[in-house]
Amino acid sequence: xxxxxxxxxxxxxxxxxxxxxxxRPVSMVKELIENALDAKATHIRIVCQDAGKxxxxxxxxxxxxxxEDLPLAPKPHSTSKISVLEDLYQTHTFGFRGExxxxxxxxxxxxIKSKVADQDAYEVHAYQDQISDPKLCAHPVxxxxxxxxxxxxxxxxAQFLRTNGTELSYITQTVTQLALIHPSVDFxxxxxxxxxxxxxxxxxxxxxxxxxxxxxxxxxPIDTTVGPLTVTGMISDPQTTFSNxxxxxxxxxxxxxxxxxxxxxxxxxxxxxxPARRFPLTVLNLRLATQRLDVNIHPQKLDIKFLDxxxxxxxxxxxxxxxxxxxxxxxxxxSNLPPYSAPxxxxxxxxxxxxxxxxSSPPAAPKPPESTLTNATLSATPASHLSFSSPATPDDxxxxxxxxxxxxxxSMTDIAPLYSPQLTQNSIEYFQLYQTYIGIPSSDxxxxxxxxxxxxxxxxxxxxxxxxxxxxxxxxxxxxxxxxPADLMCLVDEHLETLAALNFVLEPYxxxxxxxxxxxxxxxxxxxxxxxxxxxxxxxDYPNATQDLTLSQKESLQMKACKxxxxxxxxxxxxxxxxxxxxxxxxxxxxxCPHGRPLYIHMNRSKLERLFNRS
Length: 615
Known about the structure:
This protein is of the alpha+beta class. 27% of the residues lie in helices and 22% in strands.
């Protein structure tokens, strides 16, 4: 009986292996640029025909390849980067397997020209296992790799390539990201004789980002070390967001990566400050000892594995939150708020003859419905000294119902706004519009706040602070028996102390259940089973990253704040409007409500003038 198993021939083996490394033209671009960076190149030129399908030429001014090494370079698994397996975990180079050139010459025709300083220049031609002898040629110090007819003998593979425009977009994005990671290197990208990218002469990251993404972006530099992790680069402030992650560039020790762990840390860091399904711009380079990561787990070296993912997640999250702290503030000042004449009836908007917004007090206004906003009074106290606590009630303002959630809430006045332009129109008062919006005329235009969303954000920050400081537990009258899947059940014994530190007291109750006996006082009226499941899942993925609220905990706090906040359509007294604005400006995060809806819109003065043809 003949054998059903046959040994593949070397050419077939190499073509299969090459297909894992070279998926499309951008794969070649990335591999060859990384080789150029390893060769200490400071100028890299990429020239494409038909987005690299027909031809791709990459030239660098690196150290070059000697005559002796040139015939070895296209051979599979020939490398100057490592010599033994242990070197993989200590390498600082971007290439190390010796697969790039060997893979390319099995799916395309390749010519390599190179010159080392003080030596002659040589060239070799390579296709599959056929490599020519080195021949003298003319070439400056550095290397040029010329690749023609990608997948010409693999028509099935070639038909899976996209249109020239799509393939060029992949190349453009990769070159952009590598240029941002290595701003000191000049990059030039040309396709069909048209220049697409040129960073020559621009070596500052703060100038490179506007070059690629436009000037209308507010950026924050970051350079911090948390434990073994150093994070450098730039991030956008919370008011600059995009519809996808395409403007998030990540690198580890200078290597371009796509790490779900890092993406999640970024998302969690911005979660309270930007709308849902929006993403910030980030250019981040993480520095970590090579012994703490494994770069040899992905054919194209795009993914990596961390020795301690929890530590990396927690350290990055702390670094980003530290940088973002106090930046989620609108560019209006809380240090020079307009004075108030404090009429005793709800504020309503009325036109005046001199076109200046004003507040009038109708002679007979109906008594407004009960409000959940804390009673307020105005004094000469600067806004920077105002706290979230309930101020005293003046005699001429009726007593109001105070939301239970606002009681005994600690002050959060230690975080100052980042932006402080001055409001100079001292005679202007706030006004309430449609019993839903708060209007703030200012020297630079008009601000409209959503009163429900603003109060919801204020209460959410208060409750969140209370949760972090309050260690009180509620003993359940009857233990809550919660079934757990097997993968989470095995974590319970290991994390009993961690859960107790978070005020969850529980114990195993049979092979697949746990008995929850005490819970944090803040969450007594929440879905406890979902909270605990979410917490255990977090402990499973990131065992040490439990200092921040889990998703379910945040959602529970958000629901509490939403229920307690003032509602749209609710009439407010002027004093309440003023206090709401002041608390809003003192709030640590005030771009969006906890659910991601915007808190305000701003119509600047120039836009108003254009609407009235006053440009």
